[in-house]
Specification:
Layout: E1 15-16, E2 19-20, H1 24-36, E3 44-45, E4 48-49, H2 50-70, H3 77-86, H4 106-109, H5 121-151
Antiparallel strand pairs: 1-2, 3-4
Length: 152
């Protein structure tokens, strides 16, 4: 039996007019709502009922919107943008395997592990400021993590 070619994109969504098949329900729902909204008023525009104009504009707008959020962007781009827009960046938790960022830089503090150079007074002051900054950041993180834990 002869081997047949395998289609590599079999698990990708079916796309029509740039809109994935999973988003067509939203496009149809938006266009139906915009078609039915002006029906009770009976308004005409250029001798054409208003619902025909709103239906056409809503369908074109919905297709353009879904093309905008899909083409050339990573998956779940819109969800991430909305989350970043409506929630503060300090509410995000640390990634489980990441290390906590600290602001202890040896080029600022002149503190080396081998003890080569003795600390100067300006270096001691900068070390104290850095330690105070770290303690303030930890206190803020604890406060935000407590708020995060109570909202779940």
């Amino acid at each position: 039996m002869r081997a047949r070619p395998i289609r590599p994109n079999i698990y990708l969504p079916v796309v029509r007019f740039g809109v994935a098949d999973s988003d067509w329900f939203s496009v149809l729902l938006i266009s139906c709502i915009c078609y039915l909204a002006p029906v009770p008023f009976g308004i005409t525009l250029l001798y054409v009922p208003l619902q025909m104009w709103t239906w056409l504009l809503a369908t074109a707008g919905a297709i353009a919107f879904f093309n905008y959020i899909r083409i050339g962007r990573k998956p779940y781009w819109l969800q991430h943008q909305l989350k970043a827009l409506f929630s503060h960046h300090r509410q995000y938790r640390f990634i489980p395997n990441s290390r906590k960022s600290r602001f202890d830089r040896p080029w600022i503090t002149d503190h080396h592990d081998d003890g080569r150079s003795p600390p100067r007074t300006s270096v001691t002051i900068s070390v104290l400021l850095l330690q105070h900054n770290n303690s303030v950041q930890e206190a803020c993180e604890e406060q935000w993590n407590d708020v995060w834990a109570t909202t779940n």
